[in-house]
Structures are given as C-alpha cells and as structure tokens.
Design goal:
With 480 residues, the protein is of the alpha/beta class. The chain folds into 2 domains: 261 residues, Rossmann fold (3-Layer(aba) Sandwich), CATH 3.40.50; 183 residues, Rossmann fold (3-Layer(aba) Sandwich), CATH 3.40.50. The protein contains 19 helices and 21 strands. The strands form 4 sheets. Strands 1, 2, 3, 4, 5, 6, 9, 10, 14 and 15 form a 10-stranded mixed β-sheet that branches. 52% of the residues are buried. Bound molecules: adenosine-5'-diphosphate. Adenosine-5'-diphosphate (ADP) binds next to α1, β16, β17, α14 and α15. Adenosine-5'-diphosphate binds next to α1, β16, β17, α14 and α15.
C-alpha cells in the first residue's frame, strides 16, 4: 500500500507534542510492514538546521487568493519537506509564547496543497493520504473537491486523525477564498463553524475515515463535554469514526538500552539501574535525600494537562516527605506559578521550564511516581512512557489514560497505576496519598512496578489497526 503521511510535525524532524511521536513512529512501523510510506511535512527552520535534506529541484507554485507563493521540495530518507522560507523558516512551528503566528491559515493552506504537489512531482501515487490534526484538515476536502479529478489521485482515499479536539484551526470567513475551495461548502454542513472557517471540521466532514487516538476518546468527543462544539458533527459521522490507541517507540523508550540515563534496567532486573537514575535525578534537582519518594510531572503547561492541580497539592506533598520535579513548557501563567513554588520549596521542589527531550528520559527513569492530572487526554504518551520505565502514574482516568493504565487493586495486586475521576486538587491528593501509602509498603509497590513494565505499548498492534482502517477507506465508494 502507498501511504502518504501528511503531518504538521513528526519525530525526529520537529516536535511539540505527542502528534510528532505518533506520526513519526507510525510511518516507521508501516515501512517495517513493507508498505510504501512517504512522510510529508513543512520544511521548518529546525529541520533545515538539523538534517541534511536534499533539494529535489522540483519547484511548484500555489495560488493563495491573488498571491502566487512559490515552494520547493526537499528530501531526507523517506520524508519529503515542503519548503517555503517566507512561511516556515521561523523560530517555532506554530507561534511563540505570546500567541500563534498570524498567518497560520495561509501556512497550512499552502502546506495542504503542497502535499498533493509533492505526491505528483515525486511520482508517489498514494492509496491513502493519512492526515493529522487541523493543520491538514483541508487535505480531505481538496481531495474530494479539486485533486480527485486528476487521474493521478483517482484511487486515493483520505484518513484523518484527530489528536486533540482542543485545537481546531478556526479562522475568519475571509480565509475561504484564499484556499481556492468552492464557496458553496461554507455552510454548517460543510466547514463553517459559527460564521468562521474551521479546518478540523473540514477534515472531519470530508475524510473517508476519521480516527482518534484512543477508543475512550472516540466516545468522549461525541459528547458536548469533550467535543469542543463538534460533537454533533462527530455523532453524524460515528459510523466512520475509529479509536486507535497510539503506541510508543519502544526502541527510543527502552530503559534497558536508553543512552540518556546513567543506569540501565529491565523488568527482570530493576535494581540497581533505576536506583542509579533516581540518585542522578535527585542530585540534579538539588534534593537532599534520595530516599524520599520522587514524584514528577512532564508535559505541556496548559489547562488541559492540569499542572495547576499538581501545583495546588505541591505544598502538602512536600510536607508529606515528597520531592517534586516538574519538566514543562507552556502558558506564562503556569510557568510563573511553578517558578514561585520552586522558590518557596528550594530543597524539595524543582522546576525546569523548557522542552528537553534528553532530560525527560532521566525524569521518567529516575522518578518513583508520575503525575498526570489531565483534564482531558486524547491518548497521552507520558503515562505509557512512565509505565515502561517502571514509574507508576497517578493520573486522571480519562481518554487514553483509562485505556492504558490499569487501576491498582489491593486484593489481587493487579494494576499498573492509580486513577482518579474528578479533576480537582482533592481527588488528586487522595490518589497520590494512596499511592504513597502503597509505595511505603514496599513489596506491593514492586509488584505494581513489574506489572507496569510488563505492558506492551509498541506500535505493532496500533499500526496493524491503521492498516485495517486504510483497507476500510479504500473499500469505500468516492462521494461528495
Ligand atoms: P501532548 O498533548 O502534549 O501531545 P502527550 O502525552 O501525547 O501530550 O505527548 C507529550 C510528549 O511530549 C511526550 O513524549 C512527553 O514526554 C513529551 N514532552 C512534553 N513536554 C516536554 C518537555 N517539557 N520536555 C521534554 N519532553 C516533553
């Protein structure tokens, strides 16, 4: 099967979150299964500076309203990059800490059309274009309304994966003429969203199959609480909606081989490796006593991830004898809140603001407990990585977390973590206190750690599910 993986970010090229991990790992896993895969993404500055991509010498042009914007293609291994310096040669992918880039609509209209140009110019005839998130939401519409008429794409179907309903790409109605799409689709059944143009809605309405990143989230997004205004659209397309859990890259995230941690370990032999990691982390954080339980948080500092809930219980946790480590980057408000806590508790609370992939390995490995108090979580990778590193999570039982973490059952000793329901400081506190109690009990804790490390979160199963879904999409008749 020929799969064109169109993603706004993909590991190892550019990453702001789990989408990059998913797109990169899925592309690699499909290639291992002997499918022909090309990853297509923008030629961001970070890619340009870090990878020796080759200029394909295939210039193309896209008409954006009255402007003609020129692009070029670059190639690195199985990835094709859409180059256009005026749009992508910038310090960040989507914006700075003060907000999104003002021309994001143009940037991703250009990218979405560039996906088709890249396929044509590289002679890669896709059976499936697999698009990810709002940035590629127009691709399914372009396929149905414009490019499908080209014999080159006559057999092509689209699969659209929603990684997070909270980010929809909503722009002024005046954006539509820039896209070159027919004005007739600007209505509530199409891509209009309360008088504006919604890219994520476009993908949801026109994709042959829609997927999201966990079975639980696939159900949740059809409800007003989690649908962010698109729950009705998703209910209408429920017969085309599938939930497939993400995997993690088990070569990259493997405590037995991880070169970013000072002690390697495996489910069969956890000590002394994990203990060495904890000592290193504890000392880097400036903690005084590595015997204290070390509880950590890694993630975007946003309302969604609930870092504020963790901050709300931090004082009491420290008083309970816990050391706390936060690694994150995000909203100013939450960054300031955590920085103030670090000043207040310099000996037992450490905050690192920034995105530090390498250091995150040590945090996952060197911690005893992983905190993930997300208000909602489409899939979540943090909890899976933590489990693989023998660091049981204390986490909200929502979305993909409830599909991947098994709540601890004291009688049988089964389970891999501690789930709570309400996203309140009280519920988090109760769950954390319970986990600490079991941790201090010793033996039972070691059982949970072993259970956690025995879980299989490899991409093999998930990639096989995607192949089934591609097959379903290809079996469908073309429609309007
Ligand atoms: P998101 O909603 O942000 O995509 P996920 O849990 O799906 O959340 O994925 C987050 C990924 O990004 C994980 O691999 C996590 O380890 C990583 N990550 C998040 N914040 C940081 C950070 N500040 N430094 C390093 N890695 C981070």
């Amino acid at each position: 099967m020929n799969v064109l993986m169109a993603a706004p970010e993909a590991f190892p090229y550019a990453k702001t979150g789990g989408l990059a991990d998913a797109a990169g790992a899925l592309a690699a896993e499909l290639a291992k299964m002997d499918h022909h895969v090309r990853l297509v993404m923008p030629f961001y500055r970070t890619v340009k500076e870090r990878f020796p991509a080759m200029d394909c010498g295939r210039p193309f042009e896209v008409k954006i309203g009255e402007r003609i914007i020129a692009g070029n293609l670059y190639r690195h291994e199985n990835a094709i990059f859409i180059g256009c310096d005026q749009l992508y040669d910038r310090p960040d992918l989507y914006g700075t800490s003060s907000g999104d880039y003002a021309d994001n609509a143009v940037r991703f209209i250009f990218f979405s059309r560039g996906v088709f140009e890249a396929a044509r110019l590289c002679g890669f005839k896709p059976d499936i274009i697999h698009c990810h998130d709002w940035q590629t939401g127009l691709v399914p519409v372009y396929l149905k309304k414009i490019y499908g008429a080209d014999p080159f794409f006559s057999g092509t179907k689209s699969v659209f994966t929603i990684h997070n309903m909270g980010y929809q790409g909503v722009f002024r109605a005046e954006t539509l003429p820039l896209s070159g799409l027919p004005p007739g689709i600007f209505n509530p059944e199409g891509l209009e969203f309360y008088g504006k143009m919604n890219f994520l809605k476009a993908g949801t309405v026109w994709a042959d199959i829609i997927t999201t990143v966990s079975p639980t989230y696939a159900g949740q997004i059809q409800t007003p609480e989690y649908g962010f205004g698109l729950d009705g659209v998703l209910r209408n397309r429920a017969d085309r909606l599938r939930g497939i859990i993400n995997g993690i890259d088990d070569c990259l995230w493997n405590p037995a081989r991880d070169r970013y941690i000072p002690g390697n370990y495996s489910a069969g032999k956890i000590m002394p490796g994990k203990g060495i990691c904890k000592k290193r982390l504890s000392s880097l954080c400036g903690f005084k006593d590595p015997a204290r339980p070390l509880v950590s948080f890694v993630g975007r500092l946003s309302h969604q991830k609930g870092s504020d809930l963790a901050a709300a219980v931090a004082g009491e946790a420290v008083a309970e004898g816990v050391d706390l480590m936060f690694l994150g980057k995000g909203d100013d408000l939450y960054q300031r809140e955590l920085a103030a806590l670090a000043e207040k508790y310099p000996e037992s609370l450490c905050v690192r603001i920034g995105f530090d992939e390498e250091f995150s390995h040590l945090v996952y490995a060197g911690s005893d407990i992983f905190l993930m108090p997300s208000r909602y979580e489409p899939c979540g990778l943090g909890q899976m990585i933590a489990l693989r590193y023998g660091t049981p999570p204390v986490a909200t039982g929502t979305g993909g977390i409830s599909d991947t973490v098994r709540n601890y059952l004291p009688l049988s000793g089964a389970g891999t973590g501690f789930l709570f329901g309400e996203t309140t400081p009280g519920a988090l506190r109760q769950s954390l206190w319970y986990a600490l109690c079991v941790y201090r009990g010793g033996n039972r804790w070691r059982g949970i750690v072993r259970n956690a490390m025995a879980e299989d979160f490899s991409w093999r199963k998930s990639a096989a599910r995607y192949v089934e879904v591609y097959g379903e999409a290809m079996g469908q008749a073309s429609g309007g």
